[in-house]
Structures
1.
Amino acid sequence: MKPTRFETAIALIDKKNSEDPNVYHACGLDFPKELLYSQRMSQKLLQFKPDASRALQIAARAQHICRWKIARDEYPMDRVGYLKWRETLKKMHAEITADILKEVGYDDEFIERVSFLINKKLIKKNEESQTIEDVICLVFLDYYFEEFAEKHDDAKVIDILQKTWVKMSEEGHAEALKLKFSDKSLALVKQAIS
């Protein structure tokens, strides 16, 4: 059976992300970093919102497409530089994804919707944009938080947790509190949100 447009788009996003030269070690295996991240985004989205639209599923999968192509150190190492870097990345992610979606035959309206979601426009006002933000935060908390917490002092970790928490919806908060944390991490989470 011929793959659908959606399946082809996901496969092409994965193909791009499998080119990531950065390796992430998980479950005793090495993965291209952004390929693993994108698959975790899809998995978490469908756990959180099993009825997620096709546009939302594609935006989640392509959230970090080819992220390694623009290095953080190409921008000043301050808050302004960081925000500029993030904006440039979002634009690139949206453009690469739009090209893939055009290639597989999606119309302009659908492509604009996916770009809107990748750019996380109108968080707190648009339900699907908020869902993307929740899923990003849940993936961080579930897969990357413990590692992050080990590298930073508690004050920095609590600050990041508080910033993460503010971005999330009530539904996202409820989902986050179901995650399995180590005792130390759980204590930090409780401290951050109390």
2.
Amino acid sequence: MSKRKLKKYLNEIDKDAIEEQLLDLYDRFPEVKEYYNFIFNPKEDKLVQEAKTKISNEYFPVRRRRPKARRSVAQKFIKHFIKLGVDPHLIADVMLYNLEIAQVFEKNRNIPDAFYKSMMNSFTEAVQFISINGLLADYKKRIVKIYTITEEQNWQFGEGFSRALDIID
């Protein structure tokens, strides 16, 4: 159904029917419930803290022995936050936190090449997001620090990190 047809349909039915349908959507679909819960009670700081806890648990697990170190966990949170409309400052903070915790994890470990490529992609996305949202003044120090650590630890794909950094210059 197109947006135009939906508008026409909504104009044709009465307010009570629309309320009933919205309540039905709220009950049936967890995404709708989560959206309305966020809109009416946006506990952004709590969401960000939960995300950071789960991201750090990927690299430094509390309950299991071996770390999974999956970038996808952080990416899911970031995409979800963007979809919900979380403040860009908080999204940028989570993006950079993911990179910082990954750097702590990587130190003195034998890590596969895919990890470095994945982190390069995360770095590029973070720099682009921060640049597009005009947050460079707030996060430039953290970005430069992350880049410096990648150089000091001689991370693979260094030229990719360098190209990402060129965006802010």
3.
Amino acid sequence: MTILVAYVPRPEGRAALDKGIEIATRRNERLVVVNAGPGGRQEDPSIVNGYEAERVEERLATLPITAEFRQFVRGKSTIEEIEDLVAALQVSVLVIGLRKRSPVGKLLLGSMAQEILLNVDCPVLAVKASS
């Protein structure tokens, strides 16, 4: 089985990564960390840059379990990429990070976390970054 972590280079992404590492190590399961987005937008803050990708890969290399970092920037939405991975891998749990948003922000911008919760066919663990 596989623990899948949806990673963004923000505190909530780092919280999801920490929890995913904890769960995968405790269960001795494979860990796949994914960063995905449609691309094409200038400086998308959800896309990991080269330095951040190296940091994540170096951290994963030190783990006592099989772990890998995957990045997709190829026209599909983040939700589509995550759904594809859940379908392709035997995912026992998907770990996502949540950020605090105002009610108006939720209404205007929608919620990627909500879309993930409603659309993937595996258990989802949502974690918050510590304040």
4.
Amino acid sequence: MSRTCELTAKAVMTGNNVSHANNKTKRRFLPNLVNVTLISEVLNQNVRLRVSANALRSVEHRGGLDAFLAKADAKELSQRARLLKKQITKKLAEQPAA
């Protein structure tokens, strides 16, 4: 399982540890990934995703998983998230406008 957020494509970054003597050694900056269960109101189902804490805040800010995926760019999403986005847009298109 790669260390990548399924919603924002936030992944591992590399850099240097720099000592007081200015010695540089390679290090990795890992994203803060959390396994969460998000609820899709349109599909009436729970979805388990591995997302960063930052993405989780963004989902809450936008008003839930459905609203987040509607605005999200498909290039940043994982394969599972793309499939969810497709299902949600299809379901919304089927519903009559009230």
